[in-house]
Amino acid sequence: MTTLLQLTTEIPLNTWLSAPWEAFIQQADAPESDRLKGYYYQGRMRFEPMSTGSDHSKDHTTLILSVGLFATLQGIPINGHDNCSYRRTGVSEFQPDASYYIGENADVIPWGTRVIDLESYPLPSLAIEISDTSLGDDLGAKRLQYEELGIEEYWIVNVQEQEIIAFAIAPDRSSRRIRESQVLPGLRLEILEQALARSRQENQSATTAWLMEQFQA
């Protein structure tokens, strides 16, 4: 049986481990975990290193630029969060690569908030995972977690294939594949995929200029 001392000193990464909530919180809030992403779901915890790989980080930046540009040009209120922790005490925690509050909830999280308490604040409208080495888990347990929580929309960015796998999640927690965002109406995911492909051959300024033309067409 894994002890709390073992969890806080030598925790296996990229693995779901059965653990009580208290063990997860001790690990998640420990100073040595400041470069780890933490998830807790159905009595299991998972920690991942925050990727420092060039491919992951470049796609991450391209997506953030793309979503922000589209929302700005369309006049859609939006506030994005990068690797933010969301917590429902005793039940669930997740830390997507990017997440967004959109529309009437855009300004709901006050400045100075560290971990977003889901007992006090609503869920983000959109969660995004950038999948370079974690595609199976992002399509599996994390998708189930986001569905159960009831996040409106979930995107998985497959770095290797320059593909966005997106799901709209209904109030009854069922999900369906989409090719156009429901929370950012008019945003076609094929445009973002083309931007990811272009970013392999050109700098982000050039990709952003191309995106602006597409979004204003």
TrEMBL record:
Sequence ranges assigned to domain Putative restriction endonuclease in this UniProt record: 21-195
A GO molecular-function annotation: endonuclease activity
InterPro entries on file: Nuclease_put_TT1808, Restrct_endonuc-II-like, Uma2
Native source species: Roseofilum halophilum BLCC-M91
SUPFAM superfamilies per the UniProt record, alphabetical: Restriction endonuclease-like (SSF52980)
Record's protein name: Uma2 family endonuclease
Record key words, sorted: Endonuclease, Hydrolase, Nuclease
